[in-house]
Design a protein that fits this description.
The complex is a heterodimer of chains A (134) and B (285). With 134 residues, chain A is mainly alpha-helical. Chain A has helices at residues 7-10, 13-22, 34-38, 49-57, 68-71, 77-81, 88-101, 114-119, 122-132. In chain B, α2 packs across α3 (78-93) and α6 packs parallel to α8. A four-stranded parallel β-sheet of chain B has the order 2-1-3-4. Chain B has a four-stranded parallel β-sheet with strand order 6-5-7-8, with helices on both faces. The chains are: A mainly alpha (134), B alpha/beta (285).
């Protein structure tokens, strides 16, 4: 894939918004890949967590199309291990927020098997509303 | 007077067995948990975005309600514990945010309630040796896999309950009860959390790996401190039309195992509400 890199994008409004919501300096990441190596849900992701931060660094808004930001369960394994102290779960949250604030909703409880919905603990539903809707 | 206690939504509904066994165990050990007279949901997720303080209102209200009852508040639910402990840490280091939330709620939270997990109270107030002395029915030979999950441990900077990569607190508890802790590599892996309401097949894959790993390492039972971990590990093992595989492992709250070892009456165990019934195994003990 050819990617056009420009200062307008790398220092553009998308990067600024993501840095503001997450409080993270995206360029602190040096792409060591430790987050992707230890991520327990990486098998279900279309992009590796380290690829998500790389695309965000380059100002590539198409990263919002990735399922990775919705599969991340904020388990905080990566932040425990990041040698640069990057809080990747906060970056994932920022990307979800950018999406959600554009009016996207990513949870449809009606799509769940009714027997699961009957049994699931309340906090999973409350947490799901918090993470996938606005 | 007992220790002020915040049960949270799930322990009042789907995880009543955790609440019931927790209170019974605490009372038997002289650490009575006294429910806050007034409380509401903590929000179930610690807000990770910095530009929206609305999600901090619910946990701050809980902290204020706890402040009215004393200097610390005990929790059992690992998620409530995480949300409240992190919110407390944030409000402590950000007085401006504290002021802002107080202005909105019209409540004066002062910012210094200690949020404790009941495991921490067992370790630090009572101690493992004192607990071991209270055991009347030692679980000798029972191989127990301590499953920690995420939110009891991470992030270390704000939670600081135990080593985030190599925790021991549940291991020590298991030993104090006379049982044998089983080490397994998935003991701090995520169970999928609330992915279970969006991508249940993803969380089910995670939880099956965790249970399989515990089994391969010889565990007979798994213990946890989180109602969502309990559900995510137990529910995929339920009896389906295909029947049972015979490889099921019961998933208990640590308080239930304690209730057995402390010889508490069976009605406090709450063992009838699991998808994999632990009673046949425990009756052998």
């Amino acid at each position: 894939m050819r990617i056009q890199i420009s200062i307008d994008k790398v220092r553009g409004p998308f990067v600024r918004q993501v840095e503001e919501i997450s409080g993270q300096n995206l360029l602190a990441c040096n792409q060591c890949g430790k987050c992707s190596a230890g991520c327990p849900v990486v098998a279900a992701m279309d992009l590796l967590p380290s690829q998500v931060i790389r695309m965000a660094q380059l100002g590539m808004e198409e990263v919002l199309e990735s399922n990775t930001i919705w599969i991340c369960a904020s388990c905080l394994t990566c932040v425990t291990r990041c040698p640069k102290g990057v809080d990747l779960p906060r970056l994932m949250e920022a990307l979800r927020q950018v999406s959600l604030r554009q009016g996207v909703a990513k949870l449809d409880l009606n799509a769940l098997p009714p027997e699961l919905l009957r049994e699931v603990p309340q906090l999973a539903i409350v947490g799901g509303f918090r993470k996938y809707m606005r | 007077m007992g220790i002020p206690y915040y049960p949270g939504c799930t322990l009042s509904t789907k995880a009543k067995n955790y609440d019931r066994s927790g209170r019974a165990v605490a009372a038997a050990l002289g650490l009575e948990l006294e429910e806050l007279p007034e409380w509401q949901c903590c929000g179930a997720t610690f807000p990770l975005m910095l530009d929206d303080s609305m999600a901090l209102i619910a946990p701050t209200r809980v902290l204020y309600q706890a402040q009215q009852a004393g200097e610390r508040v005990a929790t059992l639910c690992a998620i409530c514990f995480n949300v409240l402990r992190r919110s407390q840490a944030l409000l402590k280091r950000d007085p401006e945010m504290l002021e802002r939330i107080n202005w909105f709620t019209e409540q004066e939270y002062r910012g210094d309630v200690h949020v404790a997990h009941f495991l921490e109270i067992l370790r630090d107030d009572l101690g493992w040796e004192a607990l071991a002395e209270r055991v009347v029915r030692p679980l000798t030979g029972l191989r127990v896999a301590p499953y920690y999950g995420c939110l009891l441990l991470r992030p270390y900077e704000e939670i600081g309950l135990d080593d985030p990569e190599d925790p021991v607190i549940l291991h020590d508890l298991v030993r104090a009860l006379g049982a044998e802790p089983v080490d397994f590599p998935y003991n701090i892996e995520c169970c999928g959390s609330y992915l279970t309401v969006r991508d249940p097949q993803v969380s089910e894959t995670l939880s099956k790996d965790i249970v399989a790993s515990a089994r391969e390492h010889g565990a007979q039972v798994i213990i946890t401190a989180c109602p969502l971990c309990q559900f995510n590990l137990d529910y995929p093992q339920r009896e389906t039309e295909a029947g049972r595989t015979g490889n099921e492992i019961p998933v208990l709250y640590f308080t239930q195992l304690m209730a057995v070892a402390l010889g508490l009456p069976e009605e406090s165990w709450g063992m009838g509400e699991h998808y994999v019934d632990p009673r046949p195994l425990l009756n052998e003990q």
